[in-house]
Amino acid sequence: xxxxxxxxxxxxxxxxxxxxxxxxxxxxxxxxxxxxxxxxxxxxxxxxxxxxxxxxxxxxxxxxxxxxxxxxx
Length: 73
What we know:
1 helix, flat
């Protein structure tokens, strides 16, 4: 039987020109950190979460990256 875990990925990554690899490294760091805990990377999904901000404001949908990990139980 497998167990799954969802971890939030980095959001709103800003890099200098030519620094795209540093953005990829943020994801690699999360994957390596979870691997050290016995988890295997499975996939990445985007989810949209809509929060209700207040009485007279419109809800604002926000996109998040969700990294999925698995391990044998």
